[in-house]
Amino acid sequence: KQEVTQIPAALSVPEGENLVLNCSFTDSAIYNLQWFRQDPGKGLTSLLLIQSSQREQTSGRLNASLDKSSGRSTLYIAASQPGDSATYLCAARFYNNNDMRFGAGTRLTVKP
Amino acid sequence: ETGVTQSPTHLIKTRGQQVTLRCSSQSGHNTVSWYQQALGQGPQFIFQYYREEENGRGNFPPRFSGLQFPNYSSELNVNALELDDSALYLCASSLETGAHEQYFGPGTRLTVT
Predict the structure, then answer these.
(1) What are the C-alpha distances in Å from A4 to residues A28, A37, B26?
(2) CB spacing of B42 vs A104 below 8 angstroms
(3) How far away is chain A from the Cα of B31, in angstroms, using its nearest Cα?
(4) How confident is the prediction along chain B (113 residues), in pLDDT tens digits per residue?
(5) Residues with Cβ within 8 Å of residue A38, at least 6 apart in sequence
(6) I want to staple B24 with a disulfide (CB 3.0 to 4.6 A). Which of A36, B5, B60, B109 is the partner?
(7) How far is B22 from chain A (nearest CA, A)?
(8) Distance from CA of A12 to the nearest CA of B (A)
(9) The pairing of beta strand A10-14 with beta strand A106-111
(10) In sequence order, which residues have a C-beta less than 8 Å from that of residue A82 and are 6 or more positions away?
(11) Contacts of residue A63, Cβ cutoff 8 Å, sequence gap at least 6
């Protein structure tokens, strides 16, 4: 079964700290992996998309990595800010499926 | 270039009723996917439409149905609403099927009482 898991479910850090969010998936046969941000009651904002042929992607203070062999992706946030507080979701697109499989998300709180 | 839009924003229905949710894809996108997100959970795939044809379906009963129109806008219809159908419904469009990036709309919050 193709599943995506995110640990921890919640994380609280002081402002300015660097942090890593984890995402694991059960099948290494993925097309790509996408990280999203979701504010309470809102839709999903795409942060980074990593294709299966790539190892990492960067956008500003965000860096996402992909290791298919170990079934893991990480989202690194540098110099966290209170405005980064949100739920972060990862989603994998597996071969032979038209859908994206989502993790349950990590709820991040950055304290001023 | 406009993004993905959804209507209505919020909706309250009674158990047993029927509901139609609408999604307008991002310009130039021919693929739309619908997801259901229960509170505190990740989105669950309902189905995908590509060029007006269903192109994959998740583990949802037949009372969840959809349409995609020639302009690639889409509808999600849910019949015989149940309390557990209360959720945020998200649509996402992409340039094509496969490994293309998906762009999500703001969602429709459905409450079934």
Answers:
(1) 11, 16, 27
(2) yes
(3) 11
(4) 568 999 999 999 999 999 999 999 988 889 999 999 999 899 999 999 999 999 989 999 999 999 999 988 999 999 999 999 999 999 999 988 776 788 999 999 999 99
(5) A44, A45, A86, A87, A88, A89, A105
(6) B5
(7) 15
(8) 17
(9) parallel
(10) A15, A110, A111, A112
(11) A56, A57, A75, A76, A78
Joined together, the tokens standing for residue A69 give 């062999």
Contacts of A36 in chain B (CB under 8 A): 104
Could you tell me which chain B residue has the CA closest to the CA of A92? B99
Write out the two tokens for A89: 């979701």
User: Which chain B residues contact residue A97 at CB under 8 A?
Assistant: 56
Instruction: Scan for tokens 């046969």, then name that residue.
Output: A29
Q: What is the DSSP letter of A26?
A: S
Report DSSP letters for B18-33, one per residue.
-EEEEEEPPTT--EEE
Whether residues B99 and A52 touch (CB distance < 8 A) is answered with yes
Interchain CB distance below 8 Å, A34 and B101: yes
